[in-house]
Design goal:
2 strands; about 80 residues; binds zinc ion; single chain; about 15% strand; two-stranded antiparallel sheet
């Protein structure tokens, strides 16, 4: 996934569309050189979190919690 970054200028309301990290940095450099040539580059790069980013971890934890009572019961079963 490459469209996860955008640059937001610190001097004006400019911001890039979501793009790759390298393109966001390139657009930042061009924007600052063109619109704020006398100032050091400022602003920030924002990272977009993909939807369901933490879902695999949540599924893993839920599965382990559901299996825990089964494992405890199996450990107490007499042969
Ligand atoms: Zn600006």
């Amino acid at each position: 996934m490459s469209a996860r970054y955008r640059y937001r200028c610190g001097e004006c309301p400019f911001r890039t569309p979501w793009t790759s990290a390298s393109q966001a940095a390139e657009r930042r450099t061009r924007h600052c050189a063109r619109h704020h040539p006398d100032l050091p580059p400022s602003g920030r790069v924002e990272r977009r979190r993909p939807p369901f980013e933490g879902l695999p971890t949540l599924v893993l934890v839920a599965t382990l919690l559901l299996l825990l009572p089964v494992l405890v019961l199996c450990a107490h079963v007499q042969p």
